[in-house]
């Protein structure tokens, strides 16, 4: 079962957050952590982002 992965620029477009805000929220434990997809590359799981967005809308 494959799952869509989003790179940082896609995450920025999807959430409307800047790079700095995404990493600040991650540091605070309030944004999903990415998965490593290469030596110097990371991406976020679609399911993790959807869950975060749903929780954001519920708040």
Automatic annotation (TrEMBL):
The residues forming a coiled coil are: none
Q: Entry's Pfam families?
A: Phage_AlpA
Concerning SUPFAM superfamilies, the annotation shows: Putative DNA-binding domain (SSF46955)
Stored InterPro entries: AlpA, DNA-bd_dom_put_sf, Prophage_regulatory_activator
Q: Which domain of life is it from?
A: Bacteria
- Stored Gene3D superfamilies: 1.10.238.160
Name under which the protein is recorded:
AlpA family transcriptional regulator
